[in-house]
Protein 1
Amino acid sequence: MGPSDDQALECDLLVIGAGMGGLTAAALAADAGRSVIVVERAHTVGGSAVLSSGYLWSLPTIDDFAAVAPGGRRDLQQVLIDEFEAVVQWIASTGAHVGDRIPVLHGRGNQIDVQTYSRRCVTLVQAAGGQVVIDASVHELIVEDGAVIGAVVDDPSARVTVRADHVLIATGGFAKNPDLLAELVHPAAATMRARCAPFCLGDGLRLVRRVGAAATEPAGFYGHLVGAGVDLSDPERWDNFTLLHSRQAVLLDRFGLRITDETLGDNVNAEAALLAGRRGLLVWDEAVHQEVLLVSWPPGYAAIDKFDVALRAGGSGARCDDLDQLCAFAESHGFEGKQAVTTLVDFDAQVAAGRHGERYGVSRAPFYALLVEPAITFPYAGIACDAHARVLDHSGVPIKGLLAAGVDIGSVFGGGYAGGLALASTFARRAMKTAGIIGG
Ligand SMILES: Cc1cc2nc3c(=O)[nH]c(=O)nc-3n(C[C@H](O)[C@H](O)[C@H](O)COP(=O)(O)OP(=O)(O)OC[C@H]3O[C@@H](n4cnc5c(N)ncnc54)[C@H](O)[C@@H]3O)c2cc1C
């Protein structure tokens, strides 16, 4: 990235992490005429964002947030509400495709072309004289007089000091760091499998902790149920493994008991499965299979037979002609089969009696039983920040010069979730306002 001697590079904004949050902040700053250096640890930019389904979505009101993600902080959630429309317009202004407004999960949003958006962001940074440096990482943040004024960066050829008016941390959380998962999610989370970019290792949190920043309280995580043991090595296939239809299925623990209100969503079901020993038995009937699983939801999402896909990818399941077969399958995998059948029959009777609103029962054979496990995309805990995207110390005081965006930030969600791309891009925009780089 040069210069190769001891001289320091200087810029207005140093961004650590070139995913959704980092690239959005960098491109906004470059578009405003600022000099930007982006440091990316991977060989390519985009992080989890380019592996995502590209639904830029969130919730429209704070009451929705209180209902869907009650464990998050309202002031932080308000950032997603306030900045959302401006972010959608900004992404469209870069020339990346932005689809129509559609309902997405329990909110609304637009499907965007994340690959093109990432490339456009890089072009904007470079066109403004900045750099996006791949295969590089940050050795440490530099603090002078209590303010963060840059970082020591290791790129493949040299160790370089970068001085900046503002440093923005956006390294994509710590879904792949067992120690942080045990500390800030749950001891059982340490060995949970992940569906996220390779470098979600908690570098952002570790860097800012070393300069006095606080972490938020332990909390849950955003992830999905996948077939237990499926081969997750190919990110291209993750969407096909994601069991969004679990909201209309029944999730049982090894005692054959339901462990959550499944309608809260597949991400909440994944959290419940973690607490139930990282394993569950997901059961649904032919009506759910045909009318939920095989239907594209949200619009544009893969409508494929995910039961079949899971079995072909190493998962364990059975398509059962009756509940006796289901009982046998459950028992052969260490679940209490008889109790499972009792639970399913009781639940079906409750649905028939109208006690579960619009839910499907478990009455139409064949019945599908799939062993499932949770896979994490990002934790809800992370760097303590305020609604100005400023990183906070242990007294709740902002650390000068230090901003954050994206899923590195803790306490935005909790008990439920409302969009990782929105979290990243709205906080990136808010951070650029706080830095005085954009107005509004
Ligand atoms: C399969 C899948 C589907 C998804 N679908 C959706 C969806 O449709 N809608 C939605 O809202 N969300 C979705 N998500 C979640 C969304 O992609 C993430 O929440 C979002 O990308 C987070 O943005 P971020 O900027 O915080 O992190 P990322 O986009 O992951 O970017 C972080 C970047 O930081 C880099 N980095 C890490 N450590 C360092 C370091 N020390 N130095 C420099 N760089 C570093 C990483 O390599 C990465 O490039 C999905 C995720 C997955 C995996």
Protein 2
Amino acid sequence: VTTLADVRALTSIDYLIVGGGSAGCVLACRLSERADLRIVLVESGPTFSPENEPAAIADFTVRSFYNPDFMWSGLSAHSRTSDSPAIPYAHARVLGGGSSVNGMLAQRGLPSDYDEWLTMGVTGWSWRDVLPFYRKAENDRSFPGPLHGNAGPFTLHRYKRTEFSGFERAIGDVVAGEGGAELADLNGLEEEGFAPMPLNLANGRRLSAARAYVTPGVMKRPNLMVLGHTEVRRLLIENLRVIGVELHDPSGQTTVRAKHVILCGGAIASPALLMRSGIGDSAGLSRLGVAPVIDRPGVGRNLQNHPTIMLATLLSRAGRHHEQRPPCVSAIRYSSGADGCGSADMMVSIMGSVPVPTEWSPIRTRIGALMAILHKPYSRGQVTLDEKGEPLITFNMLADQRDYERILNGWRYIRRLSASTRAAGMAHEAFVPLTLGPTTDTLRTAIVSTAASIALDSSAIMRRKMIRAIGLPISQVPEEEVALREWVGMFTSPANHPAGTCRMGNPSDSAAVVDSRCRVIGISGLSVVDASIFPTLMRAGTNLPAIMAGEKCAAEILEDGRA
Ligand SMILES: Cc1cc2nc3c(=O)[nH]c(=O)nc-3n(C[C@H](O)[C@H](O)[C@H](O)COP(=O)(O)OP(=O)(O)OC[C@H]3O[C@@H](n4cnc5c(N)ncnc54)[C@H](O)[C@@H]3O)c2cc1C
């Protein structure tokens, strides 16, 4: 266990990495491969050696999502405008970051997502440029060949169609019946259809970035220190050069010097740290009482996220999994057809079971869900600071009318799919999930949920009771156009894919925060490498892309010799 005293005793630190999340773990691993460099990784949440990984993180039913020890406490966000109510927002705070608590969906996005960045002043990130780093990261168990990697630390697994539940297969049948394709690979090219979901899963366990990259061998490297439960609150800057950081841990605060600091805090924390340190919109910072160091108005702007809307259903015996599976093992990629929104702009994530907080609850396999995800949003939000220097998040979701129309259509689509699964005998009543019930592992929870699960199969009255306890019956969702629009606006939620708040771009572009090699523009000794650097969201979750970015930037940092 590394202590703050150990770090302070170091005579020099070459690279200090702030945040041990998806990208941070990759950087810690790759930079410490060079034995002559001294690397310190600072993580504000708990850290652990791979052999002591908490069971809830390893568990592929995604229990870790509900563990407050692995999340930033008190974080909230305005889903719509800043006048909309702030709702609690989940953001990881643990070694492995999002990859330790997420749904394990491991997609790359589509080639044109990256090629588009060329038009935004970003060089070296076209599909051709990023593919080698995806291949370096991945060990894709399903596909050899030039599109996939087979020797990297990050294992990807796909379930076969024969392993899908009746509910999942019924959705595939609807897609096929409407002329849609059945795809083998969502990490291939620009194709649409029903497909197995690539998952970061190995040997029946979640494979987080921590487990994949900060292995027992990496942990033992004498030139790497991993410091947990310690937050970097501020950067120390002299003459437009970062010279170190201010650290806070439960025993107090201190400063540490480093030759180069790499921010990997994620799309919420990285811009917040820059702003607290005086890097951001000067006028805004002055109003908050922070002395500006450099005017970079792009910091915290350009916040993007995928809007989602969900419809759950109680599954029949024929519709459900009879063995444990991760919540989502298949999906549909499709085009909304909306003007100017390109192709493959939508996804339906098919959940054959749902994550629940308790370790042992048969309820999780009794519920299925369909989540429509708007994969190519045009609305933009912002991260700013509150008076205590904590992040204030406004997603501004659906502000762009194109987004509103497409999520509305996404809702109509999942409603239709859900009705088909009921007609096929795979599901009972549909409902909009609001809560998942008991949250503690007690004998009472186990007994009550087992009894309820058994009763659900035989009693429509029990099913109605259960639905009223945890959600909104589908019959209460308006169908009339005006009322439905309003309802969809209220029930659309942000995914956990914030990105874009320290975006890459040309140094002459005042909205850019880092250049195409992830160096903060106008400040030396400082890079940002995490989901905040992406100029636009890819049509995918952000985990595998953050890992790819970690691989790419680690190679460039070593090439440049930034320390
Ligand atoms: C609940 C949930 C479900 C998700 N599901 C999926 C999914 O299925 N598929 C997918 O592709 N993506 C998913 N994501 C998103 C994906 O996991 C994240 O986008 C990805 O992990 C981001 O990586 P990152 O490197 O940008 O930062 P993160 O992984 O968020 O890591 C940042 C780390 O930095 C630490 N940190 C922050 N600030 C400081 C500081 N000042 N000092 C010290 N440490 C600091 C944090 O504690 C955190 O551990 C999900 C995310 C969540 C939260």
